[in-house]
Every structure is written in C-alpha cells, then in structure tokens.
Amino acid sequence: MTEVQKVRPVAMVGDEAVAEAIRQCDVDVVAAYPITPQTIIVERLAELVANGEFSGEFVPVESEHSAMSACLGASATGARVFTATSSQGLALMHEMLYNVAGMRLPIVMAVANRALSAPLVLNADHGDMMGSRDSGWIQVYAENVEEIYDRTIQLFRLSEDPRVMLPSTINFEGFILSHDVERVRPLSDEAVKGFVGRPKFKRKLDPSDPATFGAIATPENYYEFKMQQMEAMETALTVFKDVEAAFEAISGRRYGAVSAYNTDTADYVAVVNGCTSGTMRAAARLLDKEGGRFGLLAVKLYRPFPALEIISHLKGAKAVVVMDRSVSPGAPSGPLAEDVKSALKGARLDIPVISVVYGIGGRDFSVADGRRVFAMAEHAASIGPEPVMYGVKA
Amino acid sequence: MSWKELEEGAVVVGGTSAKYDTKGWRVTRPVIDEAKCTNCLLCWIYCPEPAIVRHEGAKVTVDYEHCKGCGVCESECPVRAVTMVREP
User: Fold this and answer.
1) What are phi and psi of A127, to 5 degrees?
2) Yes or no, beta carbons of B9 and A165 under 8 Å apart
C-alpha cells in the first residue's frame, strides 16, 4: 500500500500503461512489429531505448511471424521476453503461438484487440484472440487502463512460475482502452522489480549443454505433451491467486479471476469480458433501485477458465446473459457463452443462458445498451434464436 | 511413457542422432580415393550429417554408420577423389 502512495497518479492511455510496465519489469528482449491499435506500445518502447531508459534488446522485425519467432528463440535462452500485437498481426503469429506454448516458453504478449479482415476495420473486438483461443496461451482481459498496467506486471510472475511455464496475453480492446486516457497509479520501479524478480528456467539453450527444444514427437507421445499443458493450465488457476495476493501486498489492488457485482442477490446476471464489464456494472448499478435483481460477472481470466468460481456466482440466477465481443459464424453461441453453458451443464445446473454477440468491429456499446441486455435476461424464455446479434442494423 | 515423466517442452538432450543408425537409408556409398584426396575438408564442410570424419595427421574418412548416401561429397570434391558406389 505504501508503494502506491509514493508514486503520483498519472494520465495514460492503455498502450502507454503497457510500455511503462515493460520498462519496469526488467525485460531482456522485445521483438515487435507495429500494428494499429497496439502501435503506441512499440513506439513508446523504441523511444525508451533511444533515450537509454530501457536496457533490454529491442529487435525491430519485418513481420509478426518474425516477431514471435525472435521472441521464441530469445525466450529459449532464458531471457524475459515481451511482444505486442493486434488483429492481423496475431493471425500472422498463429503458427508460432503453438510452438511457444508447446515449448513451454513464458513469453508475455499484449494484445490490443482488433477485429479481423475482411472487411478491414481498425476497431475492437475479441475475434483476434478468440481465433487463437486454443493455442495454449494464458489469457487475461482487462477492464480499464490501470488493470492493463497491473496485469502486464502480474503476467511475468504467473508465466515464469516453474509450476506454470506457459506464455500469456493481456487483452484489452483496441482504441477503447489502448487509446483511452485514464488515471493510473503506477508502482515504484523498485516495487515492480522486486515483484517480478528474475526468470529462473529449468533448462535453456546453452552451447555447453546442447539440447533440442520442441523436438519431433510421435503418436505415442504427442498426446502426453498436450496433457502436460492441460495440467500446467490447471495449476495456473491456483498460481494466479498467489500472484494476485502478492501483487495486492505491494499495490493494494486485487481483481480476481472473476469480478462480481450483485451476483449473490441477483436474479439476472450478465457475464462479459473486457472493458464492457465496466459498462455492464454501471448498468447494473442504475438498476439497483429494483432491489439488486441485476448482477454482473466479469471474466478476467479466460484461459485457464475459472469454471468453479463462475458456477458459484451463477448458481442462484434465474437467467444468465453471456456477452461475446466476437463472431463465430456457424457456431451455436459465442465462445464465452459456450464455455459458461458447458460449465453450468457440467455442474448439473439447468439455468437458461442466452448468448449475445455485441460490439463487433468496434460498434459502440453504451450503458443504455447494457440495460437492454439485462432486459433480455428477464425475458429469456422468449429470446432467440441464438446467438442474439445485439445492435445489428436490421 | 507417462505424461508425468516426459521432459516439459519436448526437450531432448544433444547427441541423440549419434545413436541412430541411418546406414540403411543409403543406395550408394562414397568411396574416397586417398591418393587423390588433398584433405581440403570441403566434403567435411558440405556433409549435412556430418558423416565425414577428420583425423589428426591423416586424411578424412567416412562414418558409414550415419552416411545417408546423398552424394554431396562427390559433387563438391574439387579433385574428384570421391566416387559414389552402389551398395550391394
């Protein structure tokens, strides 16, 4: 707590908050390629290098495929590695994402979420990260700029934990958070440095101890390597709590794997990730005069999926609306909705769940929209077909 | 092997290919004419295996346990000291 008071609050956009966290996290290598709306991160880091304020190696590569490849090689040597991307850039990295996760390299990446082409659009939705959902990366979704800063710092400690050793992404909606000026209370350089420590890898690329990383497997053992990744994700759920507790001790701030509002009393709960959590919390507050019948569950940690916590918050609800800022053409529900339905069904809970798609390609979503989504939950029986494409021009 | 025993990240320690016998892959084998060979080591540089063995004070020989018979040595030898001979 005392650390917070030492440093004055500052105004920052989301991208700057990431760059500031990277400056403080003692990062050894950044290999990145600029893409809207993540550009400010890379620009700011390049500035820091030019000003001698960042001691790490900055590798300006020619594409995102190269960026992730360079990050992979650097991480394999035991270095602390960071990169950032958006949309098409993440898509171009896709192949390497699986290699990094399979080789158990704890790279941290910021994703300023942006919808995918075609048609080309610069604005936000989660379609980019959802496209790489199954790549084996830990995924955290931030609600505001300060959370982006905090999570970036936390993710190094989570990813590099010897029990986890998985890469991770901090996701935040492009422009809405990446370019939005908000109040941030940064921690002191010493506090962050002490919190992240130095990475200690069990094995690293070393000419005096040669080894092949991510060697070829056969049908007799590939499956077992995937089982290890499943197990590491499960462990990450527990380690995530430890990391949050340790971060709270130096900052006074804690978010949880999920963040709930009114879920203990609410009949109708909206489940959402990213910045719309704030919008829906505001909508729920406005509806509080109706006796706390409307609640919010913000899913902060999406992979690993905190199913048990989510079930505990939803088990008393009469109906649930799950909001997805991504489109999966042909799917019965949005990806988050599918996960929530699957978790509830697994717990033998027969609660109506409506899948609502919203905010696609940066379409604005206001508090008034939030109230309308809550109203859908109230009339769950008559809503359909799913997924509900909220706000699409008829 | 159980998933609990495998090395995380599919890491394999170095030197395992030395234990892997690949001579059966070969259709033709390189035979070095020691009289013509100048020990320039171009074959040693080009051999992708590596199956050309250097010796202190003697000319190169072929590691027939690992040579796959690709013929790069024959192709690169500037004095035509290497001949690919069909395996019986």
Assistant:
1) -55, -35
2) yes
Percent of chain B at pLDDT exceeding 90: 81
**Which residue in A211, A221, A223 is closest to B11 by CB distance?**
A211
* Domain, as residue range, for A119: 2-251
DSSP sequence for A251-284: HS----SEEEESTTT-SEEEEE-TTHHHHHHHHH
Same-domain pairing of A262 and A237: no
**The CATH number of the domain covering residues in B32-88:** 3.30.70.20
Q: CA geometry: angle at A275 spanning A360 and A266, to 5°?
A: 105
Predicted local confidence at residue A6, as pLDDT: 60
The complex's ipTM works out to 0.78
Q: Do B12 and A212 touch (CB under 8 A)?
A: yes
Query: Nearest-CA distance from B79 to chain A in Å?
Result: 35
Of B1, B11, B12, the CB nearest to A224: B1
Closest Cα to residue A277, out of A295, A250, A254? A295
With tokens 């001979």, the residue in question is B85
**In chain B, whose CA is at the least distance from the CA of A213?**
B11
Read off the DSSP letter of residue A61.
-
A199: CATH: 3.40.50.970
Domain end position, chosen among A231, A251, A271: A251
Per-block average pLDDT, block size 10, for chain B (88 residues)?
Answer: 91 85 94 97 96 96 96 98 96
Q: Please report which helix (H) or strand (E) contains residue B55, including its range.
A: strand B52-55
The answer on A162 and A46 residing in a single domain is yes
Tell me, what's the pLDDT at B42?
Answer: 97
Q: Which two tokens stand for residue A314?
A: 């939803």
> Which of these, A258, A298, A285, A260, lies nearest to A371 by C-alpha position?
A285
Q: How far is A102 from chain B (nearest CA, A)?
A: 6
3-state secondary structure of A348: coil
Low-confidence ranges of chain A (pLDDT < 50): 1-4
